[in-house]
Every structure is written in C-alpha cells, then in structure tokens.
Amino acid sequence: MIRARRLAAAGALLAVVAPYAGAADDVRTIPSRPGVTQSFLLVRPAERPTATVVLLAGGNGALHLGSGRLGLAGNFLVRNRARFAEHGLLVAVVDAPSDRPDGLDGFRTTGAHADDLRAVIAALREEAAAPVWLVGTSMGTVSAANAAARLRTGGPDGIVLSSTVTRQGRERPESIGDVRMKDIQVSTLIVHHRQDACRATPYADTVGLMRDLAGASRRELLTFEGGATPQSGPCEGRAAHGYVGLDAEVVAAIARGSRPPRDRERGRV
C-alpha cells in the first residue's frame, strides 16, 4: 500500500566496451576525472525516453562490470533496472570508478565522487534530451544527495532517496548526515518502507530528513507498507529495506515522480 504525503514545496562521448553477459544491457565507460574512467550499465526503453534515471546501488557500490559477473545483483535498483526502462526511462546503473576497485566506502561524500556523477549526467544528456534524476537506495542515497548538494552546474534535475541511510553503520563510515542537505535545491522524492528494520535507515528519521530538505524546490514523501516475507538480513535487498514483494509498485512510483510535471499531471505511468 502506498501512502503519499506532499510536504511544503516551495560532456563526454559514450564508448561501448561490451554487452554485459547474460543481460540486455550495454556496458559504457567514459572519462570522469584525469586518469579515471567511470563505467555504467545502460538500458534503453523501447520508446523515446521521457526522463533518465541514474541508479546508485547501496553497499560498497561496486558492480565489477569488467568481471563478467554482476555485483550487487540483488540490490533493489540493480535487480529492477529493466523494469525502470519498461516505464519509458533511459536507465544507467553506475559502478565504482576505476580508481576505486574495492568500492565507494569513504568516498561517497567527496567532491571527486560528485565529479564522476557529473560526467555520467553529461554523457546521458548527450544520449537523450530528457531530465536526469539520480536515484539512490540505501548507501546510494548518500551518493545522490552529495552530488545534488555539490553540483551547481551539470548536476541532476532531481533526486530520489530510497531507504535513506540516516545513521552510520558498523561497516559503512558515511551517512546522509555527512552531506550538506540544506544545499540541495532540486526536486527530491523520499521513498521509505514503514517496516524498514535496518538500524541505519529507520523510518522515523524521515521527519528530520524532510525538514533538512527545506531548500529543495519540491519535496515529497512516499511511504510503503507490507510486501513479502523478508528473505535476507534487515539491511539487505530482500527485506523491507529493499521493498521485497513491492518491486513493481515502488518502481512505478519512482518512475512517476521523476517524470516532467506535464507527464505526471496526465497520469502517465
């Protein structure tokens, strides 16, 4: 069940590396910083895209695209990449950059990480003339918020923060508290499961999170409940934290929220 509550609203060329084994995705690699490249999976919709979503997985953020075996495959965003494309969105699933082979731990709140995402955004805008949204889940929310707060030029048109990490965990040294949330000015959609049992992402913290987003041009909170019985630990993708059993509903809500206002008003899903 969805209960949505609207709160006060006030270039690099793409280079094909190889198709990803076992999936209808392309692996793309672009230069992002001097001597550094950034890879991502690109999934195109069947129709002209109305928006682009850059999916930022949780955990250590390492997909290991060059290995032939997809990392973080069970993550909510990674496993649903094709579903996003079915909603008419151009989809990019971002890997860790070439100078961070072990992942993004300790890197998500840096200016360098924001620069990498700026390069991805620029490349995707060359691919399709459509708004670009950063969609992060779990630790990916730190990446999305950091980029939106830092990038005054070349940044996203909006962000989605799903299962936001508001408290530091034992394994991950960063949280949304390390980001200057007041600097975020773009439209922001908060998505959270009321029964999220992960200690780093309690639903109760969404109240303070929405308050911290006072500078955003639009703020919206989508609360989900129910779903399937958890099949993983509380901070992993096959639990309420990753919307197990609610994939279709949550993806549809994010797709709707990331569309231009005229498409949302027409009720296009």
What does this structure look like?
The chain is of the alpha/beta class and 269 residues long. The chain has one domain (2-265): Alpha/Beta hydrolase fold, catalytic domain (Rossmann fold), CATH 3.40.50.1820. It has helices spanning 76-79, 81-86, 111-127, 140-150, 206-212, 247-257, 261-265; strands spanning 2-6, 15-19, 26-33, 36-43, 51-56, 89-94, 132-137, 158-162, 187-193, 219-224. It is globular and about 40 Å long. The two termini are 17 Å apart.
Total helical segments: 7
- Which structural class do you get from the secondary structure elements? alpha/beta
Looking at the overall shape, the CATH architecture is 3-Layer(aba) Sandwich
Using the coordinates shown, work out and report the CATH topology. Rossmann fold
Shape: globular
Domains counted in the coordinates: how many? 1
Radius of gyration: 17 Å
Give the termini distance in whole angstroms: 17 Å
> What percentage of residues falls in helices of 4 or more residues?
10-25%
What percent of residues are in strands? 15-25%
Mean pLDDT: 89
**Which parts are unreliable, with pLDDT below 50 for 5 consecutive residues or more?**
1-23, 265-269
Spatial order of strands in the largest sheet: 1-10-9-8-7-5-6-4-3-2
The total strand number stands at 10
Largest sheet: 10 strands, mixed
The ordered H/E elements are EEEEEHHEHEHEEHEHH
Assembly type: single chain
What is the class in the CATH system? Alpha Beta
